[in-house]
Amino acid sequence: PQRVTWLALAAVLLALLAATHTITFLLALPCLAVYVVMLAATRRSLALLAAPAGAALLAALLSAVIWLPQLLERGNLSTAAWSTALLLDNLWRWQDFVALALRFRAVDGGQTPYHFGAVQMWLLLVGLILTRRRTTEWWFWVGVLGVSVLLMSPLSAPLWASIPALAVIQFPWRLLSLAGLAAALIGAGVVTAFTTPRARAMATALIVALIVITQTPRAAETPHVVAPSDVRLSPASLARFETVEAAYGAGYDDEFLPRWANPAALAEVAPALPPVTATVTAGGAAGSDLHLTSDASQSFALHWRQFYFPQMRATLDATTPLVTMPAADTGLAAVSVPAGVHTLELRRDATLAQQVGLGLTILGVALLVILLAVGGAWKALAVIALAALTIGLAWGVRTVAPAPLAQQPVVDLPLTAAPGLDLAGIAATLTDGDRLQLAPTWFVRTNQPDLLTHWKLLAADGRVVGEIESAPRFGVWRSAAWAPGEVVQDAAEVALPPGLPTGVYTATLGLRTLSGAELLRDQPLLTVALPAIPPVAPTHLADVTFGAPETPIATLTGLRVTVEDAPVTGRFRAAPGDRVAVDLLWQPLTPDRAAYQSFVEIVDAAQQKVAAQDLQVGWRGTVSELWQPYLAPHEATTLRLPEDAASGLYSVRVGLRDRRTGELLALSDATGAALGDLYTAAVFKVLASSHRRPATALAATFGERIALEGYTLAPDATVRAGDALTVTLFYRARDVMPTDYTRFLQLYSPVYGMVAQSDAMPQDGANPTSAWVKGERIADTAVLHIAPDAAPGDYWLLLGFYDATNGGARLPALDEDGAALPDQAVVLAKVKVVE
Questions:
Q1: Torsion of CA 182, 183, 184, 189, to 10 degrees
Q2: I want to staple 314 with a disulfide (CB 3.0 to 4.6 A). Which of 71, 322, 341, 710 is the partner?
Q3: Are the CB atoms for 524 and 410 separated by under 8 Å?
Q4: Residue 255 to residue 77: CA distance in whole angstroms
Q5: Are residues 469 and 447 in the same domain?
Q6: Do residues 300 and 273 touch, judged by C-beta distance below 8 A?
Q7: Residue 11 gets which letter from DSSP?
Q8: Enclosing domain of residue 52
Q9: Three-class SS of residue 305?
Q10: What is the DSSP letter of 207?
Q11: 380 and 417, same structural domain?
């Protein structure tokens, strides 16, 4: 039973590797095969090959549903998938194949190839030297490491360039998976240098701790790796990403497109073609299938605005299969529809390779069960059955479609929405809980100009509760690119406002050309029953409007701010590293919402940005804007304060940017008064732990609320005229105070007078006294510039506080015994000015 269990485990792990990352599987398989052959040769036993061969065969069956279609249908891929240019561009460069910093940071996108870490390299070198037994197996892993490094180096360029099949690997640095495994095994040889089990255990623990501490990614260091939970990966954001980034299928080189696809042609104005004299109505859709009814006086070529794939099938009148093929100029799915009245179903079926692969996988599962049962490995069988059941249930729950919205068309279809453009069907779905996705199906009879769609959602009383105006398909398609005979599955997304009550709402549509000619005005199309949208309670009210007074764009009515998931109001507190979540509540005033993007940022007292929404996603500024495709009534983002944020006041600011120009919109308050272009929505205090201590201890108090603990001078107490004397003062807040006091620091002599002075709020206003928290320790650094004509002699360094808003009245200064000090000032030190 134990041997059977290990064989089954090996097969399942190999199958999972093939299913989760095929490229890594392709790299690991030859390495494992050579490893097994090496072991068999070393031990002079061919019988050792039986179990691994059986596990490999069983793994091949279990994962056939993944690799068999990839193997048999690889000829359908774009030629970019077989280009070796990407391989050659990502070879290691000799000068940077090792990241020398002890703290390893994953490189930003665009800065590949990925590197070896310094700790990884040092452990490898020490392991090579200290390993006590160098067996054949040890030399094998040294060879794996050497071959992997060689294949990632520029020396391997001729090999990558001459074998097109290797292009499937995409990047040579994928071999780091094998090189990293070999480096870990060789580096572990460090432990063998210790002679006792206890010493080896301690060495192992220390090495593992070193690796964890230095290699663990940190969110603040790798913003491109750790995406925020509030990013909406919606069809609208994906459509914008693919179009703006030219990354169709999330691949920048079209490697995931079929070889006949031509996305560039779909963005160009369609050639002028004769009109199509047919009437097409879209029926109910099931998943990605399309059901049409056609009434044509003559046959015509129907193009479905989806790229053709071999599994696409077309059936006429539910019985007659039609030939489906890619259109020559675009790669769209094309089918010839005969004259007369017919029903047409376009669907995606499994290909023969997919069906065979699924059958082999089912066979593999059956063999696995039989193997475990015959071998008596009942525990392993029970574990696998439980794991399969858990995965199946999780997958089933995840893929359960939400209940469809109750909806009813209120117009006869097809509807002539514009000359030569028919609305063949309309449907609505609710996504993300507060996004209404409207899916019109168009049939194009004649060439079209570029059109803008204006969708509105009306309450029963006629009030507009949501709207958006944009180009088709979430604002990224051109209707001028639609050719006669095309069936276009369009989509628009309308954000629903928080607090929207349950009820029946009406979706209306308007159409106009880019030049402003109105073709359709607020045509009711569909009623839809919507559930209630949960309200969002603001913690900070705003009521500021962005945009010119004569053409306002949107009003920010309020914000909801939470720190580590706890709502906060007024001037709140946070700690370094805290997550600050900000919900924006907008009242959009313009339907052209795709043209504007809001942003949130946190700045310190010097107005320096320390966190911003723009830094949350992606490695390029353009990418971060794509996840939020339009201005919505409710937007949310989560910002993280830096781990090294200093104590002081910080502000949450909100702005609105015009995507087309990059300019910030001006804003005004409810009275129309201008407020600049950034709105300070909230001010809060960051309270950081201070471990700094004064070089010279000195106790005193000011007004019984400010306790002086000491100071540090740099340089020492001897200076020259024209020098700068840096003084760091250490206070402790004995209580909260409502007043912002000004600190004065003077270098004074009764004989020579004042030769240096610095008056400022603590930390130059970044941490005013009104923001201090009881018990807080504050380090306040001031620089005194000694007058160039200062006479040599002894001077007193004096410290005190005064209220600038109350005629400069000084706070009483008391020494550590409670005795009042002259002039309400504390003498810190005697400073000598020398020639």
A1: 100
A2: 322
A3: yes
A4: 7
A5: yes
A6: no
A7: H
A8: 1-77+357-400
A9: strand
A10: H
A11: no
Give residue 111's pLDDT.
52
CA 508 from chain centre, in angstroms, equals 34
The reply to whether 390 falls in a domain is yes
Contact 725, 784 (CB under 8 A): yes
**What span, in angstroms and rounded, lies between the C-alpha atoms of 782 and 764?**
8
Q: Are residues 551 and 666 in the same domain?
A: yes
Buried-state track 458-485, b at ≥16 Cβ within 10 A, e below 16: beeeeeebbbbbbbbbbbbbbbbbbbbb
Q: Give tens-digit pLDDT for 821-834.
A: 999 999 999 999 99
CA distance 35 to 16: 20
CA quadruple 591, 592, 594, 598: dihedral, nearest 10: -80
How far apart are alpha carbons 584 and 679 in whole angstroms? 12
Return averaged pLDDT per consecutive 10 residues of the chain, 835 residues in all: 84 90 87 92 87 90 91 84 79 77 64 75 91 90 94 90 82 89 92 90 92 76 54 79 77 82 90 94 74 94 93 93 94 95 92 93 91 83 80 69 84 95 94 91 96 96 94 93 95 94 97 94 96 96 92 94 94 92 90 86 90 49 57 88 90 90 91 93 92 92 94 90 94 94 96 95 94 94 94 95 94 94 95 92
Q: Is 23 left (phi over 0), alpha (psi -120 to 50) or beta?
A: alpha
Amino acid at 23: I
Separation between Cα atoms, residue 428 and residue 437, nearest integer Å: 6
Q: What is the CATH number of the domain that holds 635?
A: 2.60.40.2550
SS3 108: coil
- Co-location of 707 and 823 in the same domain: yes
- In one-letter notation, the amino acid at residue 485 is G
Tokens of 210: 């070193």
For residue 730 the two structure tokens come to: 């250490």
One domain, residues 73 and 208: no
pLDDT in tens, 465-483: 999 999 999 998 999 999 9
Could you tell me if 610 and 682 lie in one domain?
yes
For tokens 């400010």, what's the residue?
Answer: 706
In a domain, 107, yes or no: yes
Q: How far is CA 198 from CA 192, 207, 426, in A?
A: 12, 14, 72
* Statement to judge: residues 826 and 771 lie in one domain: yes
Name the pTM for this structure.
0.82
Identity of the residue numbered 288:
S
Q: Could you tell me if 59 and 110 lie in one domain?
A: no
Closest CA to 292 of 279, 276, 307: 279
Q: Which of 645, 661, 686 is the last residue of a domain?
A: 686
Strand pairing category for 98-99 and 116-117: parallel
- For residue 169, being part of any structural domain is answered with yes
- Residues written for the chain: 835
Smallest CA-to-CA distance from 306 within 486, 73, 75 is with 486
Give the pLDDT of residue 619: 38
Q: Mark out the alpha helices in 455-575 (DSSP H runs).
A: 472-475
* SS3 of 228-262: CCCCCCCHHHHHHHHHHHCCHHHCCCCCCCECCCC
